[in-house]
Amino acid sequence: MENMICKEKINKEMPILILVVPCYNEEEIIGRTSEVMADKLNRLKSEGVISRDSRILFVDDGSRDGTAKILHELSGRDPVFSVITLAGNSGHQNALLAGMMFVKDRADIVITIDADLQQDIEALDQFIAKYKAGCDVVYGVRNDRNSDGFMKKLTASVYYNLMQSLGTRVIKNHADYRLVSSRVIDALSEFHETNLFLRGLIPTMGFRSDVVYFDVKKREAGDSKYSLARMMNLAMNGITSFSVKPLHVIAELGLITVILGIAFGIGEVIDYFGGHNFPGYTTIVVLIIIFFGLTFIFLGVIGEYIAKIYMETKGRPHYIIDSAVWRDIAEKTEEGSGSTEKQERAE
Fold first, then answer.
1. Residue 282 CB contacts under 8 Å (≥ 6 apart), including other chains
2. Of 70, 81, 206, 278, which has fewest CB within 10 angstroms of its CB?
């Protein structure tokens, strides 16, 4: 209750905004990304939309290229850039969580955005306007998928339709470009589930929300790190973390199979006494193959849920912060010599 009372005193007219930007092997574009994001942030500050203490936090998710080095150079030149480095690759969802938890007591609002500049940075004005109008969550939703190839459009359509049909509350065409208030982050810190799926979790929290539509731009450099395998894994995690409908479907299919089996048996008995019984070796083999295949699928789905339970009982941390750089913007001089640098290392 004390946290809730404290948050009500926040000045919504000029909130402290922190952009949380997860990065994994983005050395080809991260320099350009920092320029574009810093320019937008400076414009919002000069217009009095956000606080002068607003900044950009890059989360290096165990990059194997020169991303971490570039990020630390950026933070050394300008305190508007902060960096946390994770010990190993924890995954996109965990990198987002790490960034939000790190700034939990430092920001009024957080906007998570990808490092590839495909999500329109100019939409920040609309996000902040929705927040000032009373929303605690604002989802960035792409207008269309015209920039995607046929296969990407197909898999995305199947992905969202399947998630929604199985009871997972996801926002269609929303991919973690969102604004959340400090109230949401405080509430999110109370969730300790290991199998993290923010796209499904945040909509279930019940905070007042709205949507901002934007156009997706072409990637200026580098390649997408979100492979088909990663997307399938994310979809499976989302389904099994928020829905038990697959288990219900298995039970229903099992019941239907039993009914069909009984009907097939009755038919065979009738044919036998009618003198029309024929050897059905091919039919038997086909049915055995189909039913064995269904059995293994059912066992796989059940096993996925058991694996989720197993991982949850371990209670392992989502991520480990190896190091962090956070400099005081207020103490910056023209030469940069007046700023202080804080470095933290996780035990």
1. none
2. 278
Enumerate the domain spans of the chain. Answer: 2-223+317-344, 245-314
The first and second tokens of residue 1, run together, are 């209750």
Rg, Å, the chain Cα set: 25
CA distances from 162 to 33, 148, 155, 176, 246 (A): 33, 19, 10, 18, 11
Please indicate, yes or no, whether the overall pTM of this predicted structure exceeds 0.85: no
Count the Cβ atoms, other than its own, within 10 Å of residue 168. 22
CA of 60: how far to CAs of 200, 225, 233, 291, 309, in Å?
A: 24, 13, 21, 47, 29
> How many C-beta atoms surround the C-beta of residue 280 within 10 A?
12
CATH code linked to domain 2-223+317-344:
3.90.550.10
pLDDT tens-digit map of 173-199: 888 899 999 999 999 999 888 778 888
Helix axes 281-314, 228-242, angle to 10 degrees: 80
Torsion sign, CA atoms 239, 244, 247, 253: negative
Per residue in 246-261, pLDDT (tens digit) is: 776 777 777 777 777 7
Mean confidence (pLDDT) of the chain: 80
